[in-house]
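Batch job 17 of 40 flagged for manual review because the log was empty.
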Amino acid sequence: MKSGFGKTLLSAVVCSLAAAGLMSACLFGQQRPLITESTDTVAERRLRLELGGEWLHDAVFPLSGLQGNLTRIGVFGLRFGLGSAAQIELEGVAQDRLSIEKRAVAPNSPLLDFSGNSTNDFGDLVLGTKLRFVQEQKTRPSIGFRFAVELPNASNEKGIGNDETNAYAAFLVTKTIGKAQVNGNVGLAILGDPLDAGAQDDLFTYGLSGIYQACGRVNLVADLYGRTGPGGIGTEEQSRLRAGVQIKAAGFYWDAGIFAGFRSTDPDWGIVFGLSREFKID
């Protein structure tokens, strides 16, 4: 962690959730603003639209040597239910904009092609599918699997992307405990090495999230997630936290939260917000 802010934030979140009785069914199955996936899927022939934004302080891009505040505009997701226990997904960012505070000599520094103290580009698209193959029972959790491919839409000439195609696979576990839903993910990230065209870095991915029904239309949420292993420049390890609320109002699912990063190459802190809505597709 680049400062003590994240550690203080994590302690406050853990204490607050413990006081609320987190480990003691969530009201609605909304994914945002969590990264750790539950085994829940969108109902058959229904489409969930998600749209949000993020502001991340002190984001670091070791491959390009750029560092600054990252604004993510139009963080979107499309989730379509294929059946009672399957969905397909499309996720991405309409525009990433980095306000540059620092520059350092890095492997991709000679490739940078922009002027001024800011750069922007489209975010990488992620295509995925999620399956639930064990339904939750009173004495056992539900179990699922998610596979996704990340496409290299963000250009390395803009200093934000790596120009690599990545693959992700994870087993998902969900258990309802009183008024809470607890989700766990363990999996593998196969990341293209941007410094060696013939190499890849395989990292272990993890996530643990909790959703607590605070009242009829409000959920409290927290999510600790990341990846660890022999990563390199452009495929660094991550350890991150999100915590916030989900609110159902006016036909939408609203969300807002805070972000903290714990590794030197993670953004230091930030805010996230957005909304979701489901539609029936006839």
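Reviewer: the log was empty due to a logging misconfiguration, but the result itself is present. The first strand starts at residue 46 and ends at 61. Unflagging and moving on to job 18.
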